[in-house]
Amino acid sequence: MAETTETNKAAVVPTTTPRSPRGAAPRRDKRRDQTPEEPKQFEELVINIDRVSRVVKGGRRFRFKALVVVGDRKAKVGVGVAKGADVQAAVAKATDVAKKHMITIPVLNDTVPHEAEVRFSGAQVLLKPAAPGTGIIAGGVVRTIIGVTGIRNLLSKSLGSTNKVNIAYATIDALKSMVPRDEWLNAPVKPATKKVAKKEETK
To answer: Of 7, 44, 83, 171, which shows the fewest CB atoms inside 10 Å?
Structure first.
């Protein structure tokens, strides 16, 4: 009996590259078009985002409320709250509000110049100066706000309400109440130099 052998046909590999579909734009390297971004002047941090609703004639209308803090780490800070139809719009509005209401904090040796305790609505915040190397002893909203001010050493305590908006405004009011050391009532006054005329010795 004669044996029959089957030969496998070799697959034909196309030598030409596939053409792009008609009308397709040529590919460009996007990395060439990218330009180095300039460093931002202010640091923006989102503290909290809530979904709020309002009852209207047709039912409920849902929106988003954002709490944002803005600072330059050079003793400038601001807090803003705004609402928007979506999260991105709410954050953008809150950032603009925070930039319009920025305050300058007197910083002494990388800490606050004196102790301050402020109550805003139901929230109560206590800020105290700390020795070098202590760090920021705070939590939650207070730590986020102090982190963008440039203060490195601080002791704090949050009492009362846990509403983040009230705590944020209480922290800003406490920082706003800080008085520079030069303006203290009991600040040491340099002795005035008086010119004393020497009396001529009479012989």
So the answer is: 7
Q: Token pair 């941090």 is at which residue?
A: 45
Q: Which CATH architecture has domain 43-183?
A: 2-Layer Sandwich (3.30)
Burial class, 203, CB count within 10 angstroms (exposed 0-12 / middle 13-18 / buried 19+)? exposed
* Rounded Cα distance, 102 and 172, in Å: 10
Average pLDDT value for the chain: 81
Please state, in angstroms and rounded to a whole number, the distance separating the CA atoms of residues 103 and 65: 23
Both tokens of 38, joined, read: 């300039």
Q: Sheet of 116-120: strands edge to edge?
A: 116-120, 123-129, 154-160, 136-137
Task: Kindly report, residue by residue over 106-148, the tens digit of the pLDDT.
Answer: 998 899 999 999 999 899 999 999 999 999 999 889 999 999 9
Domain ranges of the chain: 43-183
- Cβ(145)–Cβ(164) under 8 Å? no
Q: How far, in Å, CA of 54 to CA of 63, rounded? A: 8
